[in-house]
Amino acid sequence: MILRPILRWGFVTTGSVVAILGYLGLANLQLTLNGSDSLPDTAYVQWRWPDTIWKGAIVAVPPPAVFGDRLSGASVVKRVAGLPGDVIQHNDGKVCVLPECFAPEMREGKPFAPLLQEGVIPEGRIAIFGDAPDSFDSRYASFGLIPMDQVEAVGVALDGFPHWTRIAAWLGTAR
After folding, report:
1. For the chain, what percent of residues have pLDDT higher than 90?
2. Is residue 160 situated within a structural domain?
3. Is 2 within the bounds of a domain?
4. Which Gene Ontology molecular-function terms are recorded (predicted)?
5. What is the average pLDDT value for the chain, to the nearest integer?
6. Is there a contact between 134 and 52 (Cβ–Cβ < 8 Å)?
7. How many domains are there within the chain?
8. CA 153 to CA 29: how far, in whole Å?
9. DSSP string spanning 27-68?
10. Is 0.85 surpassed by the pTM of this model?
11. Residue 148 carries which DSSP code?
């Protein structure tokens, strides 16, 4: 007789916790698919709250103004390499946020765009980079440092997730 009310409250409590966690997950989590070669992984699980940003985190930000309307409605996804107070240096033609250095895309022996200036990353800004040598990111002045309040989501790589083109093929939506 006593076991039945305990089980009932156990199910109610467990169901309530699952419902609350499910709501928080749906409201604050997102699956971001990588549509370029700028980062090595194909998908990232990201959350919109709390928005703690750390070196190595994968962030989604609105496209900087240099993109114009070409990426309207999309996000740029890059890895955080520089936080406020970190020093940006140039070393052998590379943009460095120690201990990492990022080589620019070269065209006719010169970087295809002016490099980010050397100096300290100011409060409220971050430097974000892709891992591919042709990634358009904070190594270039026209992309620049990103205001932290523009970070839409922060997260980590989701290992083993298939590339978006394979998912599109499975769904029959590949072109």
Report:
1. 49
2. yes
3. no
4. serine-type endopeptidase activity
5. 87
6. no
7. 1
8. 8
9. HHEEEEE--SSSSS-SEEEEESSS----TT-EEEEPPPGGGT
10. no
11. G
